[in-house]
Write a structure and sequence with these properties.
The structure is a single chain. With about 220 residues, this protein is an alpha+beta fold. The protein has helices at about 5-20, 75-85, 100-105, 120-125, 140-145, 170-190, 200-210; strands spanning about 30-35, 40, 60, 65-70, 90-95, 130, 155-160, 160-165. The protein has an eight-stranded mixed β-sheet with strand order 4-3-2-1-5-8-7-6, sandwiched between helices. Helix 1 packs parallel to helix 6, helix 2 packs parallel to helix 5 and helix 3 (about 100-105) crosses helix 6. The chain starts with a helix and ends in a 6-residue tail after the last helix.
Length: about 220
């Protein structure tokens, strides 16, 4: 493993450990990946994110073929689909954090976002996150459902499943997943009550300032 790839692997493992420390990856759930040159490093199947080691990651080539290390998480088609959608992404994080799973079981707020613009931080740090129709975890259909969604986005909620975030690096992708979890916690806690959301003007100001996307 060359120095750059090793550094990318270490960053990925650190993000995985942090997700577990924050209570966002129960059991052996969740999977993470990072691009390193023409390769994609990914958490192996069945390995808790707290136990990731740089030398024990699965390695995929630019066509998604498994070329080294243990077998990748079954969700590798989903990760590859997200990289195709977000071409500048360097990392993808998929978590089963409790409140995003709960929110993913609710009707989507709109066609373009599962969650409403409930806080400025969701709009600033994540942007709109559409609800991907349910398909079995690890299935080709789940990746196809992601591919078929219209519009521009860097994150999504997978129906009855969890969150998916793409960003420049593992730490930033995890930060996005953390923000989705917090926004989901707020939305779930407000179910059955009237609540306010940001106005279209407020949203536009934030997206223009921070470079995120939200279709009002």
């Amino acid at each position: 493993m060359n120095p750059t790839t090793l550094e990318d692997a270490e960053r990925l493992c650190a993000a995985g450990r942090r997700a577990v420390d924050l209570g966002l990856s129960p059991g052996a759930s969740g999977n993470v990946s990072v691009r390193s040159g023409d390769l994609t490093l990914m958490s192996p199947t069945g390995v808790p994110l707290s136990e990731l080691e740089p030398g024990g990651l699965s390695v995929l080539d630019d066509a998604g073929r498994h070329v080294d290390g243990p077998a990748p998480s079954k969700e590798f088609p989903l990760h590859l689909a997200m990289y195709r959608r977000v071409e500048r992404a360097g990392s993808v994080v998929h978590l089963h954090s409790p409140h995003t799973v709960a929110a993913s079981c609710l009707p989507a707020w709109s066609k373009t976002s599962a969650l409403p613009p409930i806080t400025p931080y969701l709009v600033m740090r994540v942007g709109q996150a559409p609800l991907v129709p349910y398909a079995a975890p690890g299935s080709a259909r789940l990746a196809e459902n992601l591919n078929e969604l219209p519009g521009d986005f860097r994150a999504a909620l997978l129906a009855n499943h969890g969150s998916l975030v793409a960003a420049a690096d593992p730490a930033t992708a995890l930060d996005g997943a953390i923000e989705l979890e917090e926004a989901s916690r707020i939305v779930v806690s407000l179910q059955g009550r009237e609540f306010s959301v940001l106005t279209p003007e407020d949203v536009r100001e934030l997206t223009e300032r921070y470079g995120t996307v939200w279709e009002c």
